[in-house]
Amino acid sequence: MFGVLDERALYFRQHKAHPRRRLRERRTATGSGDVMGVTDAHQRKARMVTPKDLVDAQLYTSDDAVIEDAVRHLLRARPDLRISLAIYRYQHEAISLAKAASLAGVSWPQMREIMVERGVTLRLGPESLDEARAEVEALRRVLP
User: Fold this and answer.
1) Residue 67 lies in a domain
2) Model-wide pTM > 0.85
3) Mean of the per-residue pLDDT values of the chain
4) pLDDT tens-digit readout, 22-71
5) Range of 95's domain?
6) Which of 24-28, 94-98, 135-139 has the lowest mean pLDDT?
């Protein structure tokens, strides 16, 4: 014998156990992809936090400060990205192997080994006699 209480319990089990089913039922009932007048795009946008939100909440001074902090935390959490970025900068910005190792958070010998494994051409010392002479002259000017 099903009483009012049993019917409510059955309804509760069917609908509370499957919140996605309820959402799907509401969408099909309205005949569109929106739920009670709110589209999926609005729902996604409402969930996303932007740099402007953090600046408006006076948690950061500017959008650039938010992005800088986010990138810093990303690089701390992902050592593989730090290493790849260090290699990129070594290849394109002419930083030294020691500076690349420092950026990657590894020792100089480890960085050299990583670069050799990845097939990166190492720049160790001057490539020509003219470069060597220029380095010697620069050192003579700096050192008394």
Assistant:
1) no
2) no
3) 79
4) 555 555 555 555 444 555 655 655 678 899 999 999 999 999 999 999 99
5) 79-142
6) 24-28
Q: What is the 3-state secondary structure (H, E, C) of the chain?
A: CCCHHHHHHHHHHHHHCCHHHHHHHHHHHHCCCCECCECHHHHHHHHCCCHHHHHHCCCCCCHHHHHHHHHHHHHHHCHHHHHHHHHHHHHHCCCCHHHHHHHHCCCHHHHHHHHHHCCCCCCCCCCCHHHHHHHHHHHHHHCC
Decide if 55 is inside a domain: no
Identify the pLDDT of residue 65: 95
Same domain, 92 and 133: yes
Count up the domains in the chain and report the number.
2
Q: Decide if 95 is inside a domain.
A: yes
Residue 86, both tokens: 């260090």
- 2 phi and psi angles, rounded to 5 deg: -95, 120
d(CA 27, CA 23): 6
